[in-house]
Specification:
Layout: H1 3-7, H2 18-28, E1 33-39, E2 42-47, H3 48-64, E3 72-76, H4 81-92, E4 96-100, H5 106-115, E5 120-123, H6 126-135, E6 144-147, E7 161-163, H7 164-177, H8 181-188, E8 194-199, E9 209-213, H9 214-228, E10 235-237, H10 245-258, E11 261-264, H11 271-278, E12 282-284, H12 287-303, H13 306-327, H14 334-354, E13 362-365, H15 372-380, E14 385-387, E15 399-400, E16 413-414, E17 419-422, E18 427-431, E19 438-439, H16 443-449, E20 456-464, E21 470-475, E22 480-481, E23 487-488, H17 490-498, E24 503-509, E25 516-522, H18 524-533, H19 541-545, H20 548-566, E26 576-581, H21 601-607, H22 609-616, E27 621-629, E28 635-646
């Protein structure tokens, strides 16, 4: 990028866009590692100066293809260095990167491709190229498709399909012929230019393009760094979808602001192995990932020998009693300190190592509420796990949990520069430098989301406690009341159910009803392992989910949750009275979950209305036939006669 010549004109106060941040690191830390990628089992590394040169060449190559200021660039694929570099290349030219979820089927991509007026798309591999070719007739404005991985694309002769190597070669020639081009384009950038367009998950309708500026994401990145002391000597493993706001904050914005190293795993299947090799100091995962990790741990312990299993449970009891207190620096008895030190040697240390978390200084979770029990488990074994709170419209930046001020039922205090107000109806309102600039082509939605005082209306219900910590109750639209008047917050109950390794997903119903009922998805791995150890044969998910033994297993989990709910006067009336185990897993391909794995509650209620009526109608079973979509686009049907179980409930305080 001719980093020295570009950076010479920049002083500290002018480093207010992502391309300028890249130039700054290329000048001041040229040889420090900026990115790594594991390919064919070997970690490849790029320095900041090497990344700057690649980004400059890519920007020039895009310019040769006609990409210009204000254009939008689609980016589709797993976490790959060149895809991250494409974001910065587009920003150099004054364009806007638009990442799409890589696991979305072709038809799902059509809406974003059309809505964002995409003319050029950069994709990872043959799979993504094929998706775009499938829908290209529906997207006549799509002029060029660029691919990173050439495997399988040798015989693709369409003139609008280009390899990234070809585009980079064009860009280097352009850069040599016009050495001032990149410098001038970076100089034209402004902090309030749109730097990224991220689409909402669309839980209640069509996704909306959220336009965020350089200034907004840089402010969010700097605020998070100040609270958790993030610095250039850190490492992060980037494995979550690039289209998700959390990944963009951590793997792009904070990486460019702080200068730490971004590591891209070889594949989704090797994430845990790659994580153990890198040993990141900074880690982020949504609650579902932490739930799955805990499930794997519990499965392994069930398969372990009696002595090892006994040692694990004995030391975990110690950790539960005092581990989190030790992490927070609170007083603990000398005996517990000694027992915890032994547990750290025999159990907690090896467990952190297996999870790839031995070097972690801070780990974050967000995207959905995490159950307090799950949260406490990780902190009890010495992992500095914290919750934070935010939305796509706020750069995933509203609340953070400062060290030694962790509350399991809160998402922390307002982050630096953020104001929080609670509306009369309990909705959380936020204001700060991280707010969206607008919804793309949706001035009506933009006006509806920000009130007259400039606060963004989050749609979440919550309150600030006496210490200034924000506590989330649920989505405001999901909080309801039972027929008897008791408050009903379904997400709160669902999180308690999902703490059990055998339960992967739960959907609770109860608004305007006289009791709470639930759909349960079993975890195929955990329950399958449990069944195999008991010699219980099964042919697949539907067969296993309907086994009487599995129903008894799930019933015990639900009863434990009811016992816990019964001890709390506020939620004692929302114990689960009846449940069924669904005959299929809730799936984004069937529109039951968003691509970020959030339940589309309204859609599920409508799709399975016959099951809900059976639950509340007192039926002992209900037949259902459901259409499903397969990964290759084919459709099929799954049918089952679902058993409905009544569950023991507890009088308030009697549990």
């Amino acid at each position: 990028m001719a980093a020295g010549s570009e950076a010479s004109a920049l002083d500290a106060s002018s480093i207010d866009t992502f391309p300028r941040l890249l130039v700054h690191h290329a000048r001041t830390r040229a040889d420090a590692p900026a990115m790594r990628e594991k390919d064919m089992g070997i970690w490849q590394s790029w320095s900041w100066s090497a990344v700057a040169d690649e980004v400059a060449a890519l920007a020039c190559g895009l310019a040769e293809l006609g990409f210009k200021r204000g254009d939008r660039l689609a980016i589709i694929g797993d976490n790959r260095p060149r895809l991250y570099w494409s974001m910065c290349a587009a920003q150099i030219l004054g364009g806007v990167p638009v990442p799409l979820y890589q696991d979305a089927v072709a038809q799902e991509m059509v809406f974003v491709l059309l809505d964002a007026d995409i003319r050029i798309a950069i994709v990872e591999d043959q799979e993504q190229v094929d998706k775009l070719l499938e829908v290209r007739e529906q997207c006549p404005q799509l002029q060029h498709i660029l691919y990173d991985d050439p495997r399988g694309l040798r015989h693709y002769t369409q003139p609008f399909i280009h390899g990234m190597d070809e585009v980079l070669a064009m860009g280097r020639i352009h850069n040599a012929n016009q050495p001032d081009f990149v410098v001038e384009e970076i100089a034209r950038g402004r902090a309030d230019d749109v730097s990224i367009m991220l689409y909402t998950s669309g839980t209640t309708g069509k996704p909306k393009g959220v336009c965020q500026t350089h200034a907004a994401f840089i402010a969010a990145a700097r605020g998070g760094m100040a609270v958790d002391h993030l610095a250039a000597d850190g490492d992060i493993l980037s494995y979550l979808p690039m289209a998700w706001v959390g990944d963009h904050l951590f793997s792009y914005a904070q990486a460019l602001v702080a200068g730490f190293t971004v590591n891209c795993p070889e594949s989704a299947e090797t994430v845990m192995i790659d994580m153990r090799e890198i040993g990141p100091s900074y880690y982020f995962a949504p609650p579902r990932v932490f739930e799955n990790l805990l499930t794997q741990v519990m499965i392994r312990m069930e398969d372990a020998g009696r002595i090892k299993r006994s040692m694990f449970h004995a030391f975990m009891a110690v950790a539960k009693r005092c581990g989190a207190e030790l992490l927070d620096g609170r007083p603990v008895s000398g005996a517990d300190r000694l027992l915890y030190a032994l547990g750290n040697f025999f159990v907690y240390g090896p467990l952190r190592n297996v999870l790839g978390m031995s070097r972690i200084r801070v780990a974050y979770t967000a995207g959905a509420a995490i159950g307090p029990d799950l949260f406490k488990f990780y902190r009890s074994i010495g992992i500095n796990l914290k919750q934070f709170y935010g939305q796509t419209e706020t750069c995933a930046y509203v609340c953070l949990q400062p060290d030694r001020q962790i509350k399991y039922d809160s998402v922390g205090k307002p982050a630096p520069g953020v104001e929080i107000n609670i509306a009369d109806n309990g909705e959380i309102l936020v204001k700060g430098p991280m707010l969206l600039k607008e919804y793309y082509k949706r001035p009506d939605a933009t006006a509806e989301s920000i009130n007259a005082d400039g606060y963004f209306m989050t749609g979440d219900a919550g309150f600030l406690d006496d210490d200034g910590h924000l506590k989330i109750i649920d989505r405001a639209k999901d909080v309801g009341k039972l027929a008897g008047g008791a408050m009903f917050a379904p997400n709160y109950i669902e999180n308690k159910l999902k703490f059990f390794p055998h339960i992967k997903e739960a959907v609770c119903f109860g608004h305007d009803r006289d009791m709470v009922c639930a759909f349960i998805n079993i975890d195929m791995g955990a329950v399958g392992n449990w069944a195999e150890r008991r010699g219980l044969a099964y042919s697949g998910y539907t067969d296993l989910a309907g086994k009487p033994e599995v129903y008894e297993l799930i019933e015990k989990c639900v009863e434990e949750v009811n016992a816990e709910l019964g001890r709390d006067a506020m939620v004692a009336d929302t114990q689960v009275h009846r449940f069924l185990v669904l005959h299929k897993e809730l799936d984004p391909d069937d529109d039951e979950l968003t691509r970020t794995r959030k339940v589309r509650r309204g859609f599920v209620a409508e799709k399975y209305a016959v099951l809900i009526e059976a639950l509340y109608g007192g039926k002992p079973s209900q037949f259902i036939e459901t259409e499903v979509k397969f990964e290759d686009g084919r459709k099929g049907k799954v049918a089952a006669d679902l058993v409905i179980r009544d569950v023991k409930t507890f009088a308030q305080g009697a549990a």
